[in-house]
Amino acid sequence: MTPETLEVNARSYRWMARPIVVVCVDGCEPAYLDAAIAAGVAPYIARMRKDGADLLADCVVPS
């Protein structure tokens, strides 16, 4: 049974309609991923970018 809400840090969030996966590659420049995809050595990341979402986050200290 899936709950209707999820509580994190005293905040309540509506449960997502479908599963979500977030991948954070800390310390990686986007150009590194671009080069790996161009070289054909990162097909899974290429597929995630094509079929999913590709977002860049700002780092804050402490990370």
UniProtKB/TrEMBL annotation:
<dbReference type="GO" id="GO:0016787">
    <property type="term" value="F:hydrolase activity"/>
</dbReference>
<keyword id="KW-0378">Hydrolase</keyword>
<dbReference type="InterPro" id="IPR017850">
    <property type="entry name" value="Alkaline_phosphatase_core_sf"/>
</dbReference>
<protein>
    <submittedName>
        <fullName>Phosphonoacetate hydrolase</fullName>
    </submittedName>
</protein>
